[in-house]
Amino acid sequence: MTRTRMTAGERSEEVLGAAISAFAESGYAGTKTDEIARRAGVSQPYVIRLFGTKQQLFLAVLERVCDRIEELFRAGAAQAPDDATPKDRLDAMGDRFGDFLLEGDLPRVFLQGIAAAADPAIGDAIRTRFGDIYLLAHEVTGASISEVRRFMAAGMLLTNMTAMQVTGPDPVPASWAEEILENLGTEGI
């Protein structure tokens, strides 16, 4: 049986996947590049050669996560009919954001990015990307500032609930979480 060598791009994708998983579990400060390398099946110097530093790797991971949110928001807004109201477009985006919440480690990595914002480079990156996501939601829906603010607040609430595992594929039962989810669409969060 012959083994095919991975391209640098394929290997880079493998390292990013391993980094997403590791950072989701241990956060920025608690994750070592040698753990990421072990998960990816490469050497630690190879990880550094691909991404430079742990910080640059974490920033690449955050870019991937925020790009995914923007991709889902755009897809949700695009699937709404031309005569859709801003609320209809926000609802469609919210439905697609549900896909993000089911993507395992991505919501937790997003929260890890916020938690690591005290690091100047990470803070600048997450603030910029969060702002870009907010502006995108406003732009593609035509919703008012207060509607987009409620939409973003509900998204952050759901992201936190997903990280706590009270929602998602195998939720830990919590009556308060069930109450929030039951009333999410009716309360205008």
Structural notes for this entry:
The structure is a single chain. Helix 1 packs across helix 6 and helix 2 packs across helix 3 (44-51). The protein has a domain at 56-187. The model has no long low-confidence stretch (mean pLDDT 92). The longest helix is centred in the middle third of the chain and has 26 residues, at 54-79. With 189 residues, the protein is an all-alpha fold. 77% of the residues lie in helices and 0% in strands. It contains 9 helices and no strands.
DSSP summary: helix tally: 9
Overall geometry comes to globular
Helical percentage: over 70%
- The structural class is mainly alpha
- The termini sit apart by 57 Å
Series of secondary-structure elements, N-terminal to C-terminal: HHHHHHHHH
Write a concise keyword list for the protein shown above.
77% helix; globular; single chain; 9 helices; 189 residues; mainly alpha
Topology:
Layout: H1 8-30, H2 33-40, H3 44-51, H4 54-79, H5 86-101, H6 106-115, H7 120-141, H8 145-163, H9 175-187
Helix pairs in contact: 1-2, 1-4, 1-6, 2-3, 4-5, 4-6, 4-7, 5-8
Task: Quickly describe the structure.
It is built from nine helices and no strands. The protein is mainly α and 189 residues long.
